[in-house]
Design a protein that fits this description.
Layout lengths: L1 H29 L1 H8 L3 H9 L2 H8 L13 H8 L5 H20 L1
Helix pairs in contact: 1-2, 1-3, 1-4, 5-6
Length: 108
Amino acid sequence: MFKMKANELLEQIREANLSYLLLAKQLINEDKAEAIIRLGIDENTADLLDQLTTAQVLRIAANDVPMCSIRFEDPAVWKLLCDHGKERAISGMHAAILMAGRSAQIAA
């Protein structure tokens, strides 16, 4: 029973990896600068992802290690994202600005 749940979990990780990589490639293809901010990656990583072949994407996605991670630890960002008030769009934009600023600090 435990083995079956572990296998299901690993399969879900692989599916999430594939979805993330495909989304990343699409975002990079549509607007590289915006993708870098949204994905929280640097330009070199964006270039690398953009150049991956379909076979490489499938091979990478098959790993049991998640390709993406939660990239913000600031409680203020969590509060803004969880806010379901009337100003939800503004809260989302404010959270995006905070995360973009954090990405810029890390890159510097």
